Amino acid sequence: MTDISKIRNFSIVAHIDHGKSTLADRLIQSTGTVAARDMKEQMLDSMDIERERGITIKANSVRIDYKAKDGETYVLNLIDTPGHVDFAYEVSRSMRAVEGSLLVVDSTQGVEAQTLANVYQAIDANHEIVPVLNKIDLPASEPEKVCDQIEDVIGIDASGAILVSAKTGVGIPEVLEAIVTRLPAPKGDRNAPLKAMLVDSWYDAYLGVVVLIRVIDGVLKKGERIRMIATNAVYPVDRIGVFRPQMTVIDELGPGEIGFLTASIKQVADTAVGDTITHEKKGCEKALPGFKPSQPVVFCGLFPVDNAEFEDLRDAISKLSLNDASFSTEMETSAALGFGFRCGFLGLLHMEVIRDRLEREYDIDLITTAPSVVYHIHMRDGTVKELHNPADMPDLTFVDHIEEPRIKATILVPDEYLGDVLKLCQDRRGIQMDLTYAGSRAMVVYDLPLNEVVFDFYDRLKSVTKGYASFDYQMYGYREDFLVKMQILVNDEPVDALSTMVHRDRAENRGRQMVEKLKELIPQHMFKIPIQAAIGGRIIARETLSALRKDVTAKCYGGDVSRKRKLLDKQKAGKKKMRQFGKVEIPQQAFISALKMDD
């Protein structure tokens, strides 16, 4: 049993690459939580893809025992959170389970867009925040300037900021002391009925569903029967434990503690994140407020390259969704691509990560269709439909108007690149909302259509600012605009996977780019192939891919010209027939390249 005044729960928040996971490694190492021989880089990142890309995708927790300078031993529960905008949902969940945050800022880069977003989430959760300036071992480090920036931009006191180098271990003892002295202990009543928050859950092949919980009041012991308030399901608790990063079984969890339980739960879908767990009998009356469910914002189709692999893909997706409840799937069929799934993701990085995991962990070759967003279609009869796939667009005679999702984007950029960033946002139909300065950097706030951001906005932003801009966004609502569905026809056949929704003023430009690109990407056939972009029945752009020629008159030398004519006419008729019945093979690479637009 742990004395509640000796517990500290905290998370580490920061922008991408500012050193959260490395700082977590040093805290684990310096307290001897993990034996030196078991220590490795990114200790808390368990997925291969996290290690390879050097990013955190899932928030992970670890329990550290720390002997402070006052001679007391404290229990520190640390949650390492992702820094990327697509996984902001993971961050907001982790925040609710703890009382304080270490705000890590790279002392060479300063405050970035995602630093702001994550700090505001911590402030919303009423956290005590301790600023930590990382990477002070680098020659470009400017701690005083960054402290001023934290005070100007975020508005929290940075006079007590701790200077550390998570790589070399400088300043780590000061961080541990600050956690104990500056962060509050959790509050909770040991004798009240059990009330615990379900923070996260994932599937383990041996134990079933593992549930990460934070106990608020009461005590949870092994063998007790628990009830989930949201689903009203009752389970007997098989085991209780904590992560030191390895699972360690203990007898009970008291108020303020973070740990896990397993209870023969079969599916992750049975454990709603944010749910309240209590005892079956004498449970708590009032549930915790819980979290808003995550809303997918980007949709795309996933199809196996080989149709025979469809069943494997279905298995793989159902296994993946056990561990990631934030992406949604439904079956779909396409004339060109056969059977597949329409999947919804929290953002483009999330989509890439899921696609990589499907290809790598389950060894399936995939075709990914154009990413699209959810449009609201207002029909003439007053009903509103959600459109996830441009191919399902209803007949325009029944449509009154179409609304598209908008985002509020915050971009922090050095002054010399400001003009390029403003031009990029204007080109993408953005509306400027705010422009302020934080030191030598401009902070621009734009209202942008999500549709324009989904494709390659982030890549373009990085290239026009030479990588110095940082970008963060949140959903901002829907607005009506003049949108149309653009189809691509290859040899007069529409290709579902390439239909997109575009703004009417941009359609011709976009269509022309697309057909020119496809002309380069589709290999030549024995017959000529028209490639067209169309809106409704109107062709707005066309390119023709010429046929491969075979010289049929090679065997005629001399003689009458009518013999050659006859052979050429026969070839012409054959090509006409081939064009009528011939199938055009569009290579997988063409789909992906045609959708990445260069301005």
Keywords:
599 residues; alpha+beta; Rossmann fold; Elongation Factor Tu (Ef-tu), domain 3; Alpha-Beta Plaits; 5 domains; eight-stranded antiparallel β-sheet; 14 helices; 31 strands; 33% strand; elongated
Short characterization:
This protein is α+β, with helices and mostly antiparallel strands. It is built from 14 helices and 31 strands.
Detailed description of the structure:
By secondary structure, the chain is α+β, with helices and mostly antiparallel strands. The chain has 5 domains: 4-182, P-loop containing nucleotide triphosphate hydrolases (Rossmann fold, 3-Layer(aba) Sandwich); 195-279, Elongation Factor Tu (Ef-tu), domain 3; 298-367, 2-Layer Sandwich (Alpha-Beta Plaits), CATH 3.30.70.870; 376-481, 2-Layer Sandwich (Alpha-Beta Plaits); 484-595, Elongation factor 4, C-terminal domain (Alpha-Beta Plaits, 2-Layer Sandwich), CATH 3.30.70.2570. It is 27% helix and 33% strand. The protein is built from 14 helices and 31 strands. It has an 8-stranded antiparallel beta sheet. Strand 21 and strand 22 form a beta hairpin. Helix 3 (88-96) runs parallel beside helix 4 (113-124) and helix 12 (504-521) runs antiparallel to helix 14. The radius of gyration is 29 Å and the shape is elongated. It starts with 6 loop residues before the first strand and ends with a helix. The model has no long low-confidence stretch (mean pLDDT 79).
